[in-house]
Amino acid sequence: MTTHGGFEPVFCTIVPPHVLDKLSQAEDPALAGPARRTLERDALERTHRRLTTVVGAPSVAPPAGAEPARPHRTVHDARHGTDLPGHKVRGEGDKPGKDATVNRAYAGLGATFELLLKAYRRDSIDGNGLPLDATVHYDREYNNAFWNGEQMVFGDGDGEIFLDFTIPIDVIGHELVHGVTQYTANLTYFGQPGALNESVSDVFGSLIKQYTLGQTAAEADWLIGAGLLAPRVTGKALRSMKEPGTAYDDDVLGKDPQPATMDDFVRTGRDNGGVHINSGIPNHAFYLAATALGGHAWERAGLIWYDVLTGGELKQQAMFADFATLTVKAARERFGDGEELEAVSKAWEQVGVRTL
Asked: Where is the Peptidase M4 C-terminal domain (predicted)?
């Protein structure tokens, strides 16, 4: 499977660096220490990823005798170390064990595979049956989860600010969908293209959660990472697609900085040009389109977004306006000049993104 214009080294985390930066400055060493160590570990992993990446998206064949259109999951345990993938603890078809973290990771891999297959006829994240690998219990008090271009990795959290990163199924889905983007549009991880990369993962992470729960767009909470924040934190999730900027407002973490419209677009050199911050704008556009259409969001709004991501026209350096224009085109091509086209066009207009 090839990607547009070559392959960019991928290392994508669910907790943005600006959150960990803020946390690392806490007066309490029990809060600051794990955050600092997580930032250091992320920097090491990011550098390692750049140095070891070869040109071309990695291609891993499904195991011999594997059935097509069936998941091929393997969960490993790092045993609080950092060597990947770690010790194999559960393979495809194995019964659940006593470790709830392993079981949640296995289930989350399966839920992501199922949505991609059932809703979009995509066989795993590369469309070609790619095995899904995950490692749990990574490092000690590691406050993140990431996709490194080849597999999922989950920390246990510090128990003070963040809980186990396998708890929210949308976190698992979010990170795996970075893999889908990697094998399709391969959006550059900086600035507006990077924010679109993050937003696409939030969109489909949320859809995986909604699909698993059988929720309509009206029933969904549209939160990313609900259940991840420890009880002491004043907040409900990492991000809100319904109301960007309202996910948390905490004395240690600070306030959620996400804008909902272009009026509040954040210009910054940090966080790869604000990829986790400005993703709130396309996130909100999807929420508006999905709720305007009603029903199950993965069926119409999700299909339009999927068509754009995988259609071959989305450039690596795409800006918000480019993406918006392609969603309008995709809505018209798939559904004609009906309510889908109107909902998508109006959603982008409401967040201040002009279609070209």
From this structure: 185-353
